[in-house]
Design a protein that fits this description.
Elements: H1 10-21, H2 27-48, H3 66-70, H4 74-87, H5 92-112, H6 139-147, H7 155-168, H8 172-176, E1 183-184, E2 187-191, E3 197-201, H9 204-217, H10 240-253, H11 263-277, H12 282-289, H13 294-297, H14 305-313
Antiparallel strand pairs: 1-2, 2-3
């Protein structure tokens, strides 16, 4: 069992363990599901056991029983969604994750363990998500960001990190998880979502940036995590938080809005630039980014403002001008 989630009832811990080991969900997803289940069980205690709602955030839930879980019906689930929207300000994307968690949890109890006779989450709908175009850096902004890397410390490391993000479209977790042994010539092996391994091909800019960083890395003494490619100042594997900080720092140094861009936006940037300038096939882009569904990749096939403007200008009717003829008979007879 996952001991760090011992604040949940045993059946929920077993479910999280199943999702981690058998369904290959990422530790991040498991952590989010832990939070969602704990919130759901607290809601059960408030609504079915009349627990003090003012103490909602500290209510213990490891005493939730299987009978409590069985007592939930579809109406309760929709009431829970309404509650977290209203009282916890959960947006549609967060509620959608809670729906996914509850559907998986009750399916596990119903189909795998067969300890409930009715699955109340089977008909639970997920909130409709508004599709938004991904934010990304334009080509000239991308160049400015790379040129902004300067300073006395960690320049080679930080530059290599930005180059990998913007050329390969790596996820943050994939980048911090890179080991030196994962790099062989122009290939990089990364572990993506669901612990799926994929090969990323390194262009010359990536190879040069990594080589320059390795030279500096080899000068370090007493490295505590020798397997890791990117190291912190404490000589251990660099943390996601540190990478997020350095990305914000250089975004600001490049004169861009640090609140608009993040490591994930640099992944968007890589995908958009490859599609727009490299004319990469959508299936190839799917493989590069490690998307399970091509529907996820299709968000990068959006057109930008310049493409829209040029499309309108290319209309053959765009050269036709209105030629107003003077009316010779200004006062025609009626």
């Amino acid at each position: 069992m996952i001991k760090e989630y011992s604040d949940l009832p045993d059946i929920a811990i077993e479910f999280l363990d199943y999702m981690l080991t058998m369904k290959n969900r990422s530790p991040k997803t498991i952590s989010e599901y832990h939070y969602d289940l704990r919130t759901f069980f607290r809601y059960i205690k408030v609504t079915k056991h009349h627990a003090d709602e003012e103490k909602f955030d500290v209510l213990p839930v490891n005493d939730i029983t299987l009978d409590d879980i069985k007592s939930v019906d579809l109406t309760d689930l929709y009431s829970f969604m309404s509650y977290v929207s209203r009282n916890h300000n959960n947006k549609a994307v967060t509620r959608a994750r809670k729906v996914a968690c509850l559907k998986s949890f009750y399916k596990y109890l119903y189909s795998k363990l067969k300890i409930i006779e009715y699955n109340p989450a089977a008909e639970l709908d997920s909130p409709k998500l508004v599709k938004r175009l991904p934010k990304y850096l334009k080509l000239e902004e991308s160049v400015k960001l790379l040129e902004s890397v300067d300073g006395k410390k960690n320049v080679a490391r930080d530059y290599a990190i930005l180059v990998l993000f913007m050329n390969c479209g790596l996820r943050l977790s994939e980048l911090v998880g890179i080991n030196i042994s994962n790099i062989r010539g122009d290939t990089l092996t990364v572990i993506g979502k669901g612990n799926k391994e994929r090969t990323v091909y390194l262009n010359q800019a990536c190879q040069d940036a990594i080589a320059a960083y390795i030279v500096e890395r080899n000068k370090m003494k007493v490295i505590k995590d020798p397997k890791a490619l990117f190291l912190s100042e404490r000589k251990v594997r660099i943390s996601p938080k540190t990478v997020q900080y350095l990305v914000k720092k250089y975004i600001q140094a490049a004169g861009l809005d640090p609140d608009k861009y993040s490591p994930h936006k640099l992944r968007h940037t890589a995908a958009t630039l490859m599609y727009k300038y490299g004319h990469v096939d959508i299936r190839a882009l799917q493989a590069i980014l490690g998307h399970e569904s091509i529907a996820t990749t299709e968000i990068y096939t959006h057109v930008d403002e310049d493409q829209l403007r040029n499309a309108v200008k290319s209309n053959p009717l765009s050269s036709i001008r209105y030629n107003k003829k003077e009316n010779q008979n200004k006062n025609p007879e009626v």
